[in-house]
Amino acid sequence: MTTLRPFNCDDLFKFNNVNLDTLTETYAIPFYMQYLAHWPEYFQVAESPTGEIMGYIMGKSEGQSDSWHGHVTALTVAPEFRRLGVAGVLMNWLEEISEKKDAWFVDLYVRVSNTVAISMYKSLGYTVYRTVLEYYSGDPDEDAYDMRKALSRDVERKSIIPLEHPVRLEDCD
């Protein structure tokens, strides 16, 4: 049985099993602390019955007007807990928080080469909104997909109409 609970400072010293993945972005401690201080409602841990961190999600709300949205900054699940639906539970939770904040959509960035994650996001209702060229600073040849899912406020689903051309990071709002 998986338990969702708020991320806390002590978790920073217990989530190595989750972050030791080549596709997981690992940030400096101040970055995690900034999210915990500014958007605590968007930072959750999935915990096993034995207290082991199975995965976590970190996000925020941002934008203005009809671009007000929830954003997934990081979602990762430890290898031994993958394919159990943990990522889907965490994503559903973030979407519910975004609905409560009256967001129009939820978005996230994913490496174009991460076909497993892209497939999972598509199964959760996300679509590719645009390609962001050279998004990953550590790998300038790696582009990202900006994937989005419209929420109930966006009745006409305008927020997910795909752009026809790729953009550069500096062109992202």
From TrEMBL:
Pfam families: Acetyltransf_1. GO terms for molecular function: protein N-terminal-methionine acetyltransferase activity. Its EC number is 2.3.1.254. It is found in: Cytoplasm; Nucleus. It is an enzyme of class 2 (transferase). Residues 2-152 form the N-acetyltransferase domain. One of its GO terms (cellular component) is NatB complex. Keywords: Acyltransferase, Cytoplasm, Nucleus, Transferase. InterPro entries: Acyl_CoA_acyltransferase, GNAT_dom, NatB_acetyltransferase_subunit. It catalyses: N-terminal L-methionyl-L-glutaminyl-[protein] + acetyl-CoA = N-terminal N(alpha)-acetyl-L-methionyl-L-glutaminyl-[protein] + CoA + H(+); N-terminal L-methionyl-L-glutamyl-[protein] + acetyl-CoA = N-terminal N(alpha)-acetyl-L-methionyl-L-glutamyl-[protein] + CoA + H(+); N-terminal L-methionyl-L-asparaginyl-[protein] + acetyl-CoA = N-terminal N(alpha)-acetyl-L-methionyl-L-asparaginyl-[protein] + CoA + H(+); N-terminal L-methionyl-L-aspartyl-[protein] + acetyl-CoA = N-terminal N(alpha)-acetyl-L-methionyl-L-aspartyl-[protein] + CoA + H(+). Catalytic subunit of the NatB complex which catalyzes acetylation of the N-terminal methionine residues of peptides beginning with Met-Asp, Met-Glu, Met-Asn and Met-Gln. Proteins with cell cycle functions are overrepresented in the pool of NatB substrates. Required for maintaining the structure and function of actomyosin fibers and for proper cellular migration. Component of the N-terminal acetyltransferase B (NatB) complex which is composed of NAA20 and NAA25. Belongs to the acetyltransferase family. ARD1 subfamily. This is N-alpha-acetyltransferase 20.
